[in-house]
Amino acid sequence: MLVVAALRWSDQRATVDPLTGEVRTDPRTSGASAADRVALEHALRIAEAFDGRCLAVTVGPREADEVLREALAVGAHEVIRVEALAETITEDGSETARLLLDGLPDRPDVVVCGDHSADRGTGSTPAFLAQRLGACQALGLVELTVAGEELRGVRRLDGGRRERLVFGPPAVCSVEPADLGLRRASLPATIAARRAEIPVARPGSLRYLRAGGTRAYSPRPRALPVPREAAPHQRLLALTGALVERTPPQLVRPATPEEAARELLDYLRRHGYAE
Amino acid sequence: MTYAGPDSRSTVVGESTRTFDVVVVGAGPAGSAAALEVARVGHSVALVERGPFPGSKNVYGGVVYGRILDELVPRWWERMPVQRWVTRRSTMVMTPTQALTLDFRTQDWGKPPYNGATAHRADLDSWLAELAVEAGAVLIPSTVATGLLRDTSGAVVGVRTDRPDGDLTAGVVIACDGVNSFLAKEAGMYPVGGESAHLTLGVKQTLALPRQTIEERFGVTGRDGVDIEILGCTRGIPGGGFLYTNLDSVSIGVVLGLEGVRDGGTRPEELVADLKRHPAIAPLIKGGEQIEYSAHLIPEGGYHAMPELVGDGMLVAGDAAAMCLAAGIWLEGVNFALGAGMYAGRAAAAALAAGDVSRRGLSGYRKLLEDSFVLADHRRLRQLPGLVLSDRVQRNYPGFVCDLVQGLFQVDNPLPKPGLRKLLLRSAKDNGVRLRELARDAWTGMRGLR
Amino acid sequence: MNRVLAVLVVRDGVLPLGADETIAEAGGAALLVGTGADKAATELPSLSAGWLADNGTFAPGRWARQLAAVLRDTERVLLPASADGRDLAPRLAAELRRPLLAGAIRVNETGAEVARWGGRVCVDLVADGPFVATLQPGVRGPAPAEAQTLTGISLPEADARDVTVVEVLDPEPGTVDLAEAPRIFGAGAGLGGPEAVELLGEVAAALGASLGATRVVTDAGWTGYQRQIGTTGVVVHPELYVAFGISGAAQHLGGLGSPGHVVSVNTDPSCPMTAMADLGIVADAPAVLAELARLLEVR
Ligand SMILES: Cc1cc2nc3c(=O)[nH]c(=O)nc-3n(C[C@H](O)[C@H](O)[C@H](O)COP(=O)(O)OP(=O)(O)OC[C@H]3O[C@@H](n4cnc5c(N)ncnc54)[C@H](O)[C@@H]3O)c2cc1C
Ligand SMILES: Cc1cc2nc3c(=O)[nH]c(=O)nc-3n(C[C@H](O)[C@H](O)[C@H](O)COP(=O)(O)OP(=O)(O)OC[C@H]3O[C@@H](n4cnc5c(N)ncnc54)[C@H](O)[C@@H]3O)c2cc1C
Ligand SMILES: Nc1ncnc2c1ncn2[C@@H]1O[C@H](COP(=O)(O)O)[C@@H](O)[C@H]1O
């Protein structure tokens, strides 16, 4: 049984220039996301439960070795880095998945991923992995456990609903950083991992999507439905909301917290949010 | 697995094999310099750091005087991650509405071997630690030293960390864990009590500004930069202010005596806000967006406040040994930390080579320090922190000199210009300055710098 | 079917987040697949041409194969970037051998403008041919259609490995997805610590509201990261937002929609959160909260 933890190396504290959209990253603050760290913990537990091997893999540049050292320190049996440039803006999850699988020595039985990465953030990589492996997918899990020969998960749906899933290998899971934390590495294992050689696979290179300009995010104007009023004047009023009644903003400086709390409750009552 | 919890302090251990020849705690400038020196001569050394990477907890930028690196890194100025080289140094004395600046500029400091440089600590500390790692040190990040390991005779033989199976045994432990050193206290090297009198609080904000704006406002070009030290901006609380230029940000902040902060009831942020609003400062930083805020303790007691530096199996260096010069218009700590760390590393290596890591075997450390700037400067300047932080310098002199200069340059026609003597007396009287004390302080100051 | 089409996963007549907007972005045409599609179609003002396929429970592996068979000639396939859409879209793109432009803010003829780095950066991706895209919920708004035509279709059979769904759980009151909560009490750094955040959650619950938080609060671990509202957290559209000790940073407000009623409790009268509030209360947030809990007899 081979359980793979897919860890993406990216800057968890990148800054973005609000004018140009230029992303500034720093290898020192780069590493696995909270979700990926939880994925690693699950992979270790699943491997333990199935008496299998846990392999941690990352598709990334040399600096990404750091996340694999951390994986070794917490008990991954092997690690492998699949050589690739970090071109996070125009990279495609299907390409990551292709390269990742090409770089593995064996076909994995279970792959555990984070639910989305910090940079690309699409959560699509695990689905592409499942497609290529012909495996079932269980994505966006908030719980993942082993029960006998099976895996059980709870997946988050829209609107706060959740679904309970049962599945067996081959499977690809992605987990939210909920429930668990990554175990802490012992000191001897940490020291050993700092000195370890990290194996590298070079199965090919990533292809990127063609891209136009990059810029800082600014919200898209929200389309307003065309007003149905007949007269142009009425339509104008409807669009601008000029005659809609509005309460002017109010700033209060209550003398005591109690007075403040009462102000707040009064406001909620006035607007029908409390009896 | 045994978990060494944070509660475990000194632990007595039996005979055991050494995991490393030397364990350095804290990957600040002192720790990295120590590890580098030890690794260089072929001893094994671990560099234990609490933060996820060196400098992660020490995020403020400041001015670093790099000349001590001559001994550690050839042509260091080509490799050190520098923001700007300080070619302009101003000392400013202010009252809420006045400011008098002594402004000095030299292009000599803008070329090798340089003088001061502004640098971000995350960059600087990472670079220094990387030098140690390249030389063979093992950096162990995200790991806190929680206590000392001792043998039955009481000698230090390692540290305990917060990781499972977290004991690290070593021939020598070098404590470089920064101000208020937990390890040095643990080893009983600090005198008990009275610590806060020797501590100052540094509060700093980093404000982003376009590179070109900085160059226009501060009158510098290329990689040249400015260092402004300020007296009289702390509402009488002993301390001072500073303003440094980085490449595309400025660092502004105050350094305050801890007792003054406690008694004064003023929040340090308010003083920084005051300083930012001051008419002499506001135009320089206008439009700067705050990108970082940090506060940290600084040991400023100088020579008198230092702990014992050498114990059986243990050395203390840098801020951990209170080797920081923080007295109003001086703020130097990194250079002292680098120097002390380097000498600690050397002394440890020599002791290991000689097979004697006892207090005696390690005593070369103190000698190296005495013979170098580290202790020489501190000894020479030992009166200065007291003077600069005295009530008179803090509360009375800034107003006095500002009034004096204002009187000299103010044209009150049709009144005739007042004579210097009259001005002197009036400014002194208005600001509660006794000329006799002034003369005595001037003498102390001059003697202190002799 | 049309050259541009939205594909929506319907579960027991319940539509995914961002359904109507995705249809609007696709020009009004959509394929509704799942269970209860006919019921769902009545809740889509932007839908002009709808195809309905009853297809049983959601199974992304199998569905992707089935859908690919009928979507070969559809040049642009759009799904909302909600839970099921994000699950299905990559499989569909792979089956159709097309690029996936995931997390789009805007979709155009040749590609899409997608958000990266937690919604802080935008980039125009060019597809050079047919593609599949997912659209972020909440970015555009509806485009009501004049009339609606609906056509029932059935999808060809296919086989793929999928998980077994044991049951669907209703939302726990405490974890109702923030994105849909009509009333939210927001916890900011000004609350000072985890105990106050917990109390705010209880006070909110007493008033039928959900707990949200700023990144400072979730990063500090005072509450779960799921509660983070903002450009890198959940995008919400509440009617009522009551902010406790929140400064109102752009990244936070960016995810707040435009609530009808905003209250801000903050010691700083000029912070952006208070500036945009209908009622600004200049006071100590933890103290006001404690009083509120007392008045509401929470605890
Ligand atoms: C606001 C401010 C401005 C300053 N400006 C300047 C300036 O402009 N120029 C200048 O030269 N100096 C300046 N200083 C002083 C300077 O920062 C210090 O003197 C210098 O950092 C001392 O270096 P160090 O290596 O001894 O300690 P530190 O830099 O404090 O490093 C100690 C390291 O030990 C780690 N550590 C602590 N405890 C443990 C533990 N138990 N286990 C593991 N690791 C641990 C810490 O994380 C840290 O990395 C300033 C200080 C402040 C606060
Ligand atoms: C790339 C990036 C993405 C981000 N994404 C998000 C995001 O998605 N969501 C998000 O929320 N943030 C996000 N942030 C962080 C954001 O910039 C702000 O730092 C954050 O929203 C501020 O949270 P806050 O208001 O709780 O804290 P602060 O900004 O520290 O404000 C605290 C407020 O509490 C007030 N206060 C203090 N004490 C009291 C008291 N006793 N009583 C009452 N009021 C008091 C203060 O006046 C202040 O207004 C992001 C930041 C970056 C850089
Ligand atoms: N370059 C990569 N190397 C390893 N795993 C990856 C990589 N990119 C993405 N993943 C995995 O896929 C998950 C989702 O990423 P994304 O599709 O980029 O949102 C991540 O949390 C990782 O577990």
What does this entry look like structurally?
The complex is a heterotrimer of chains A (275), B (450) and C (299). Chain A has helices at 34-49, 65-74, 93-103, 125-133, 187-195, 232-240, 257-270; strands at 2-6, 10-11, 15-16, 23-24, 30-31, 53-60, 78-83, 110-114, 136-147, 150-156, 162-167, 171-175, 200-201, 210-216, 250-252. In chain A, a hairpin with a 5-residue loop joins β10 and β11 (162-167). Chain A is an alpha/beta fold and 275 residues long. Chain A starts with a strand and ends in a 5-residue tail after the last helix. Chain B is elongated. Chain B has 3 domains: 6-60 and 120-190 and 307-380, FAD/NAD(P)-binding domain (3-Layer(bba) Sandwich); 84-111 and 196-299, 2-Layer Sandwich (D-Amino Acid Oxidase, Chain A, domain 2), CATH 3.30.9.90; 390-449, no CATH class. Mean pLDDT of chain B is 89; it is low at 1-8. With 299 residues, chain C is an alpha/beta fold. Chain C has 9 helices and 15 strands. In chain C, the strands form 2 sheets. Chain C has a 9-stranded mixed beta sheet with strand order 7-6-5-8-4-1-2-3-9, with helices on both faces. A 5-stranded parallel beta sheet of chain C has the order 12-11-13-14-15. The model of chain C has no long low-confidence stretch (mean pLDDT 90). Classes of the chains: A alpha/beta (275), B alpha/beta (450), C alpha/beta (299). The interface between A and C is large, with 87 and 97 residues. The complex binds flavin-adenine dinucleotide (2 copies) and adenosine monophosphate (AMP). One flavin-adenine dinucleotide (FAD) binds at residues 25-31, 48-51, 57-58, 60, 62-64, 144-145, 176-178, 182, 202, 204, 253, 296, 298, 318-320, 324, 331-335, 337 of chain B. Chain C: Its cofactor is FAD. Chain C: The electron transfer flavoprotein serves as a specific electron acceptor for other dehydrogenases. It transfers the electrons to the main respiratory chain via ETF-ubiquinone oxidoreductase (ETF dehydrogenase).
